Amino acid sequence: MEFEAYRDRMGTDTVGRYDLTPLFADAETFESLRADLLAEVPTDPNSAPTVVAGIDALGFVLGSVLAADLDLGFVAVRKGGKLPYPEGELLRREFVDYSGESKALELHPRLLDADDRVLLVDEWVETGTQMRAAAALVEAAGASVSSIATVGIDHTEETESLFERYDVHHLG
What we know:
Layout: H1 3-9, H2 21-25, H3 27-39, E1 51-55, H4 58-70, E2 73-79, E3 91-96, E4 102-107, E5 117-125, H5 129-140, E6 144-153, H6 157-165, E7 168-170
Parallel strand pairs: 1-2, 1-5, 5-6, 6-7
Antiparallel strand pairs: 2-4, 3-4
């Protein structure tokens, strides 16, 4: 499906960002979205992901579906303070999001191995700060980012560094 068809189905009368949840509510649209994102995932044995990581919260929806299709494990990159572990056991990265709010992401390092190649998934990348924080967590755990998959990305100076450093796949 063309990106414009997805955009027409998104909630666009929103404040600050698109609402992608209508894409999940319609089975045919969701299946098309799944297939389109899956088609972008690297398949070369030397660069294909060995695990999928989704960013809280809508990255969980897309990432878990892709992980199941790829027969890979799924790792949740959580918002700060949501994982039930003592602070010292978690990797944490703070960032300022698209709205100017200070936030954090966390990851338990035991979920990734040093030889893992991670497909990072989120629904949209506005400024890239959240995606860069998630990538930093993956790398701090000793794994590498094989690629990034997202429905949409705002092409700005801020997001350019993602394209320079990682294999970024997006539908629009």
